[in-house]
TrEMBL record:
Residues 38-146 form the Serine aminopeptidase S33 domain. Pfam families: Hydrolase_4 (PF12146). It comes from the Eukaryota. It comes from Brassica napus (Rape). This is (rape) hypothetical protein. InterPro entries: AB_hydrolase_fold, Hydrolase_4. One of its GO terms (cellular component) is cytosol.
Length: 266
């Protein structure tokens, strides 16, 4: 399934929703509305947005099953924050997710599952470790050791540059984002091992990871499997980080898990 297939699969018109987070920042999302009480919330990855192919395809597939899905842009991401992105912000994004879940709860909707891809996978796990009000979490290709991967993205001399300048800007395509000492330290001090130990034992966690992930090694998925007690691991053979040629396998794995959840809540 490619992104165009995901878009065309949406049976209902998507509703644009704006939600204010606890910092009075605007979170913009699209609700795939089916009329179900349940709303599955989807969280994108680093420097991505709600229109990422994984987000669109998974949302369309959930909608096709008769369950509403909401995909949104974290603060600092998406078109309205084109020049406001800061590196890091894992806990800030977990708080964004909190605001989204509270929004639907206030509307008498139920969020039975939260799903995140890449950095979003870490965010949904952090959320579960902090708030303990979600019973089902899907982690797609999240990173277990947040100390890794920084040098590959920012250059191996990133700490030296921060010591000299206090911050530096990174050009990423057509946009530029800022890296500060505070945001680097926030990432370095975010311990996914300790966070996963705090996830409730009755919270079901599904981790999906591509065997050929070029960004985050598949070994990270096995580390999550070793530490999270109520955990299921699915390795998609041959898949890269974005499941470029394996969207259908990714979607079917996610839907199989979600079906076991939403049946219980209907």
């Amino acid at each position: 399934m490619d992104s165009s297939q995901g878009t065309s699969a949406c049976a209902e018109e998507q509703q644009r929703i704006e939600i204010l987070n606890s910092h009075n920042e605007k979170l913009v999302g699209l609700l795939h509305e089916t009329g179900s009480t349940e709303v599955v919330v989807l969280c994108h990855g680093f420097r991505s947005n709600k229109n990422d192919a994984v987000m669109k395809n998974v949302a369309a597939a959930i909608e096709k099953e008769g369950v509403s899905a909401f995909r949104f842009d974290f603060s600092g991401n998406g078109l309205i924050y084109l020049h406001s992105f800061y590196f890091g912000n894992y806990n800030h994004e977990a708080d964004d997710l909190r605001s989204v879940i509270q929004h639907f709860s206030n509307m008498n909707r139920v969020v039975p599952v939260i799903l995140g891809h890449s950095k979003g996978g870490d965010v949904v796990l952090l959320y579960a470790s902090k708030y303990h009000d979600i019973s089902n979490v899907i982690n797609l290709s999240g990173r277990y050791d947040l100390k890794r991967g920084i040098g590959e993205r920012l250059g191996e001399d990133f700490l030296e540059r921060l010591e000299q300048q206090g911050f530096f800007d990174v050009k990423d395509g057509r946009s530029v984002y800022r890296v500060t000492a505070d945001t680097i330290m926030e990432r370095l001090n975010t311990d996914m091992h300790e966070a996963c130990l705090k996830i409730d034992k009755d919270c079901r966690v599904l981790t999906v990871h591509g065997s050929e992930d070029e960004i985050i090694p598949v070994e990270d998925a096995r580390e999550f499997a070793n530490i999270i007690p109520n955990h299921k691991l699915e390795i998609v053979e041959g898949a890269d980080h974005c499941y470029t040629k394996h969207q259908s396998q990714l979607v079917s794995t996610v839907i199989e898990f979600i079906k076991t959840v939403t049946v219980k809540n209907n």
